[in-house]
Amino acid sequence: MSNNDLAQRSRSAVWHPCTQMKTLETLPPLAIRQAEGVWLHDYDGHRYLDATSAWWVNLFGHRNPRINAALKAQLDTLEHVMLAGCTHEPVVALSEKLARLTGLGHAFYGSDGASATEIALKMSFHFWRNRGLSGKNRFVSLQHGYHGETVGALAVTDIPIFRDTYAPLLRASAQVPSPDWRLAESGESPQDYALRCAQALDDYLAAHHAEIAAVILEPLVQGAAGMAMYHADYLLLARQSCNRYQVHLIADEIAVGFGRTGTMFACEQAGITPDFICLSKGLTGGYLPLSAVLTTNAVYECFYDDATARGFLHSHSYTGNALACRAALATLEIFEQDNVLVANRAKQVRMNAALQPLRELPIAHPRNTGMIWAFDVPDAPADFPRHFYQQALAHGLLLRPLGNTVYFMPPYVISDAEIDWLAERIILVMKKVTT
Ligand SMILES: *Cc1c(COP(=O)(O)O)cnc(C)c1O
C-alpha cells in the first residue's frame, strides 16, 4: 500500500470533515500508517510532527504506553454497559476525580464536545424551568466563539463559514463583543479592553436577564476564532455579572482544559468556578470520544424530585463508555505521576526562546498561552493556508493554519530537541511561503 492508494480509496469512500471534497483532487488526504509520541508515519516512509495534537485532543503522545496498558486491561474486563440503571468502576472513579479537579460534581457524559454543549444548554434551561422561570430560554455567547456544530451548539457558535448556511435552522442567540486582545484600540491594554467587553456583557444582561438562561464562553482562548487570547479579568467580571443577574456561566473548556493554558483548567487563572464546565478533547488523552459536563449542587438539587419530568432525561447510548472512561483515568494518572503542569512551564519557556527569530519575519500578534502558540500573517493571500500546509508537510510538520493564523499546540510529551526542531521548521516554512 502507498499513500496514494489509500488516499484515493478514502476520497471515494469517506466523506471527510471540515473539507470541500473537491479540494482533495489536488490535495489528497495524508495516509497515516502508524504513530508514536509526537510523530505520525505515512506509507511512503515519511514522518510528520503532529504539531496540533490530532485536532487538539492528544496530550501524552500517540500510542502512549501507560494509556495503552490501561485500555488493554479494561478490554479484558468490561468494554461497555448501559449507564441507565447500571454503573461501573471506571465511570465512578472518573467522576470522583473530575469532581476533585473542577470543584463541580455530578458528571454527566456525552461522546463529543458538541454534545457537551447541548447538555449544558439543556440543563441550564431546564434548571430555570424547574424553578418556574421558563422565560429564561435564551443564551448569550461571545463573538467569534465556537462550541461545536450540531444544531443546538451551532446556535451559540459564531464562525460564519460553519454557521451562515444553517442559519435558518438555528434559534437566534445573542453575541456580545469578544475580549480578544487583537481587537483592542491602539493604546488600549488587553486588560482595559477586557474590562470594556465585560461592561458590554453586563449591560446586555442588565437589559435582558429575564430571558437569558446562560452565558457560554471559551475561557482565555477562543480556538476557532484563530487562537484569540484574552485577559483573565474578563472571566472574573463575567462571573460577577452572571451572579448579579441570575444567569448561569457555562465554561466550555473542551479545548483549553487539561493543562492547555498552563493550569489544569483555564478558569483557575481567574479564580472563578463556573456553573457548568464542558470537557472533552484532551479528556481521554486523544484516545476515545468522550465528553463530560459537571455542575453545582444547586443545579443538581433542582432536578432531584419525585416527578420524572423534573429529572434530566437526556439519553445517549454510549454514555459513560467504560473504555473511554478508562482512557481518561489513565490520562489523569499521568498528570498525577509526572508533575505535568510544572514540566510544561519549562517547555513553554524553551519554545518561546526558540521562536525568537520569528519576530524578524513579517508576522503580527505573536501570542502564547500555556501550551498554545499562534501568530498572524498580515495581508496573506487567499491560498496561504493551503500553501503553508503543503510546505509544512514537505518539511515534516503536520500544521494547518486557520485563515491567516498559524497556530500550534503540540502534545505535552514533546522533548526539548523536538521543540527546537519544531520552532526551526516553522520559521523555515514561514520564510518559504512569505518570500
Ligand atoms: C472542538 C470544540 C468543540 C466541539 O467538540 P467536538 O468533539 O468537535 O464536537 C466545542 N467547543 C470547543 C471550544 C471546541 O474546541
SSE blueprint and pairings:
Layout: H1 3-13, E1 32-36, E2 39-42, E3 47-50, H2 53-56, H3 65-75, H4 89-102, E4 105-110, H5 113-130, E5 138-142, H6 151-154, H7 160-163, E6 174-176, H8 190-208, E7 212-217, E8 221-222, E9 228-229, H9 233-244, E10 248-252, E11 276-279, E12 291-295, H10 297-303, H11 322-338, H12 340-354, E13 364-369, E14 372-376, H13 384-394, E15 397-398, E16 405-408, H14 416-434
Parallel strand pairs: 3-15, 5-6, 5-7, 7-10, 10-11
Antiparallel strand pairs: 1-2, 2-3, 4-12, 8-9, 11-12, 13-14, 14-16
Pyridoxal-5'-phosphate binds next to helix 5.
Q: Briefly, what CATH class of the largest domain? A: Alpha Beta
Residue fraction in strands: 15-25%
Q: For the terminal residues, how far apart are their CA atoms?
A: 37 Å
Placed side by side, the strands forming the largest sheet appear as: 4-12-11-10-7-5-6
- Number of helices, where a helix is a run of at least 4 consecutive DSSP H or I residues: 14
CATH superfamily of the largest domain: Type I PLP-dependent aspartate aminotransferase-like (Major domain)
Task: Name the helix and strand elements from N-terminus to C-terminus, one letter apiece.
Answer: HEEEHHHEHEHHEHEEEHEEEHHHEEHEEH
- What is the CATH architecture annotation of the largest domain? 3-Layer(aba) Sandwich
List of distinct ligands in this structure = pyridoxal-5'-phosphate
- Helix vs. strand class: alpha/beta
Q: Could you estimate the helical fraction of the residues in percent?
A: 25-40%
Number of strands: 16
Radius of gyration: 22 Å
What is the global morphology? Answer: globular
Low-confidence stretches: none
